[in-house]
Amino acid sequence: MTTEEKTKEEEEIVPTKTAGKILFCGCTDFKNVGRTKQIDESVFANVNVPSKISTFENENDLEFTFIASGSAAAHNVAIDTKGRLWAWGRNENGQLGTGDKDNRNAPSVVKGIHFGENADGEGEEAVKIVWAACGKNHTIAIDSEGGFYACGSNKSGQLGVPITWSRQKKNVDDERVEFVKSASATQAKFVKATCGVDFTVLTDADGKMWSFGCPQYGQLGHGDDHEYNMKEGTVKLAYEPQPTPKMIRSGDLNAEKDYKVVKVCCGHNHVACFCEDGKLYTWGNGGYGRLGHRVQKDEFSPKMVEVQGGDRNLIPKDAILACGSTATHFSACMGQLYAFGKLKVSGDNTMYPMPQMDLQGWVLRDFASGAVTFATCQDEMTVTWGAGGYGELGYGPEGKKSSACPDVVPSLQGKRTIMVACGLGQTLFLVKSEDVKEGVPVFEPLPETKGGEKKKQGAHLIKPGGAKKAKK
Fold it and tell me: How far apart, in Å, are the Cα atoms of 228 and each of 31, 168, 218?
């Protein structure tokens, strides 16, 4: 392959992105977030206003093109303009790919995923990461040549690498504390990834979807949940792990239909996608109406969702799509936002797509769903809402912790947010660099400690501009 051909091919695979700076708010106790409300804020102080992270401030001219977390994830990943992957947060299963299981309070470059002239992943042969996704206990990364890497728990085959498994014995977790490159037999070039609790869905350059991991609710979309009885004489159901990436071509995306997916997103145990035909498809766990099919029924294959207006209200290619733990959001004709599922902690379920009038007329740039929180952005305004409890909505120390309706993040007014990402008790904002030069507080994470060491100093905010600068 000539250099010109290779460059052209990479351009088709690498998504177009805009660089910016990362702001963070929410819980800093990655180990306990989502598990207990008894978090010691004298040690792990919540960050109530979107703030810069001092780690990033200590590197000159550092900008990012991508951020990600997940509705079930207590860890985060980001990709900088050099194609380096950064990771931080909970690491009990090695999901950060750092070679150990120590939680990381501060972001660090994942050096093990890179090869080339030096450990920082620079040089002509270095791997350039262009996309990443977080499951509950695993992480997926995709490089500029279409290969994918995985780390963390592989108990259900969610890393896409072989596992030792037996129907007679309880499955033992096959953890990978460093990123491993998939040795999949498929020749597909992957461009995007999305993760549920314990499964993964990839999109290739031809617009086809591939899935692997836990099949329990049919979320792999292959027409089967691979259920079996572990013990004779009694009922003890289990689900056979599916570690081999397999193309999704069942249900309404059958083998005779040459579909081309535009976007796909995973919730805890369900998946939604829309294709070039402008139609929305969902499958997996149907509880709370999160599939939008008017019934709480699991779907083992992609099934088209009926949207008000039918073919007159098709989903455009630049539409947003997001799946949370029990909800699904998407935008259709004229940017109208729709949602279905359990949209609030209390109240009735929404069993089919309903327009969200609070954001009517908005042209949304990006949208993210956490476990019980949501974030979106348009023009120079960012909005969050949901059952926050750790300051992850970013309303400030004197602001409300939760919001039943979308509300503006005060400190981000007048700033252009490029991307948003929600995790367990935390929210990330990728903001245009020019908008975060002055007046934005800096969050200083706790110093790194090994497992078992007691932390003596709490994380805190320091005054704007107070972060230590890297020596030139």
Answer: 34, 11, 14
The pTM of the full predicted model, rounded to 2 decimals, is: 0.90
Tokens of 438: 């002055």
Contacts of 170 (CB under 8 A, 6+ apart): none
Inside any domain, residue 359: yes
- Does the residue 219 lie in any domain? no
Rounded to the nearest angstrom, the gap between the alpha carbon of residue 118 and the centroid of all alpha carbons in its chain is 29
Contact 100, 85 (CB under 8 A): no
User: What number of helices (H) and strands (E) belong to the chain?
Assistant: 2, 32
Q: How large is the greatest C-alpha to C-alpha distance in the chain, in angstroms?
A: 71
Distance CA 377, CA 385 (A): 12
Q: What confidence tens digit (pLDDT) does each residue in 365-400 have?
A: 999 999 999 999 999 999 999 999 999 999 999 999
Tokens of 96: 């950060």
Alpha-helical runs (H) found in 39-112: 54-57
Among 414, 410, 408, CA closest to 432: 414
Domain count within the chain? 1
| CB-based contact 61:70 (threshold 8 Å) | no
End-to-end CA distance of the chain: 40
| Strand ranges across the sheet with 381-386 | 366-369, 373-378, 381-386, 403-408
Q: How far is CA 241 from CA 181, 197, 213, 251, 447, in A?
A: 19, 14, 6, 21, 38
> What b-and-e string marks burial along 267-286, b requiring 16 or more CB atoms within 10 Å of the CB?
bbbbbbbbbeebbbbbbbbb
Does 290 reside within a domain? Answer: yes
Domain membership flag for residue 348: yes
204-227 tens-digit pLDDT: 999 999 999 999 999 999 999 999
φ/ψ of 265, rounded to 5, equals -145, 145
* Residue 182: other Cβ atoms inside 10 A: 19
The partner residues of 89 in beta bridges, in order of sequence, read: 75, 104
Per-residue burial over 433-457, b = 16 or more CB atoms within 10 Å of its CB, e = otherwise: bebbeeebbbbbbbeeeeeeeeeee
- Residue 338 corresponds to which amino acid? Y
**2-11, 147-156, 301-310, 351-360: the lowest-pLDDT one:** 2-11
User: CA angle, 214 as apex, 258 and 146 as ends, to 5°?
Assistant: 50
DSSP 345: S
Enclosing domain of residue 294:
249-364
